[in-house]
Amino acid sequence: MLPTGIIPLARSVESDSLAALKNEITIAGGGLAGLSLGIALQSHGVAVTLHEASAYPRHRVCGEFISGVSDETLETLGIEDCLADATQLQNASWNDHVGRLTEMQAPGRGISRWKLDERLQRRFVSLGGTLVTNSRIAPASGVIWAAGRPRQPSPWLGLKCHASNLELTHDLEMFTSSGGYIGLAKIEDDMVNICGLFKTRPARGAKGSALLLTMLRESSLHALADRLEKADMDESSFCGVAGFQLGKQEGSAFCIGDAASMIPPFTGNGMSMAFESAECALQPALDYASGRKSWLEASTTSTASQASRFKRRLLSAMILHRLLMNPAALRITSVLARRRCLPFQTLFHLVR
Ligand SMILES: Cc1cc2nc3c(=O)[nH]c(=O)nc-3n(C[C@H](O)[C@H](O)[C@H](O)COP(=O)(O)OP(=O)(O)OC[C@H]3O[C@@H](n4cnc5c(N)ncnc54)[C@H](O)[C@@H]3O)c2cc1C
To answer: What value does the mean pLDDT take over residues 13-33?
Structure first.
């Protein structure tokens, strides 16, 4: 079922066609949120100019495990085919430095951001959207802010690298430690994406996958580091990010994706939220484009729609994230998990 007010693409282009279009739309940020909203708006006949600070294709710090987004959301945005050949992921394991804590069902899709973002930008351009790469713009009225996590002081360091020649026991392997958590997910071409969020500062001098391995060893995940040392790491895919806070962001008025709120990465739900927030913004943006709503009304409606959709999962994820990063809580969690006293499957659904 479509969210209230959203008109299916085929019908709207025919019957609505936004004949009375008054406003063009500018989007800042060509990640998943900005591109998917841009594609949906262009498909509805709205002229969109999208500014992206970098260029395509590019690697991004991301676990590349997409979970939680419904087919209906992808169809509403008109991007379902861009994910059609993503690797279908079914099962997952949770582990600590000692060994396996649990196995669970974790349905999702694995696809590199290198491939996905490139596909989405091509789709946007093929629909007539104006894409301006290497263009960093400032927030302003009339600009939908999809510029990702705002820069701010934080203890977090995100690292990612692709590897081949790496056998996984499950489609997704998660490892927790009080120094951070890391996920290994199958993506395309028998590659594995390795992505972690760490609390400690990087060791001076270490670069690329060596830095990733250093962070794993500092987090007491030695067995995993030994395993990764034997794999073929693709150094060209290595990237890192620091200087961001998790949870609700204080951003521009009309914002979507990480710019609005960043769910802790262990959930594997951030990309889904990027798509879902684009869906929440679609009807308000159409109303603004047609002159039915002012900019303030459109941004207020979009913000309220995202707040009600994401409130529960964000709160649950922030609480679980604190527990995961607290050494005492993590020890208790490990004991309970080994005694099969933790409802991992229920928690998985709670954060999506
Ligand atoms: C360590 C880590 C692991 C993660 N793992 C997963 C996972 O496994 N599954 C999952 O679903 N999510 C995961 N996420 C979260 C996911 O990556 C994000 O939620 C998602 O990328 C958000 O998409 P977005 O479009 O909002 O932002 P982004 O993808 O960050 O895109 C924002 C874009 O805006 C551009 N930009 C920035 N400033 C400007 C400006 N002023 N003007 C123009 N352009 C600008 C940037 O260059 C960028 O391309 C992870 C995040 C981290 C940090």
So the answer is: 75
In this structure, which residue's CA is closest to atom 2 in ligand 1? 62
What is the separation, in whole angstroms, between the first and last Cα of the chain?
18
> Of 322, 324, 323, 311, nearest to 351 (Cα)?
311
Q: Which domains does the chain have, with CATH numbers?
A: 9-15+22-350 (3.50.50.60)
The atom number, within ligand 1, closest to the CA of 272 reads: 11
Determine if ligand 1 sits within 6 Å of the CB of residue 39: no
Handedness of CA 160, 165, 171, 177 (dihedral sign): negative
Ligand 1 atom showing the smallest separation from residue 53 Cα: 44
Local structure of 121: helix, strand or coil: helix
Instruction: Determine whether the shortest distance from the Cβ of 28 to ligand 1 is under 6 A.
Output: yes
Which carries the bigger pLDDT value, residue 3 or residue 283?
A: 283
Q: Which of 13-27, 87-101, 116-130, 334-348 has the lowest mean pLDDT?
A: 13-27
Q: Is the CB of 257 under 6 A from ligand 1?
A: yes
CA pair distance 256, 302, nearest whole angstrom: 9
User: In this structure, which residue's CA is closest to atom 15 in ligand 1?
Assistant: 270
Residue type present at position 135:
S
Of residues 131 and 141, the one with the higher pLDDT is 131
Assign 60 a pLDDT band (cuts: 50, 70, 90).
very high
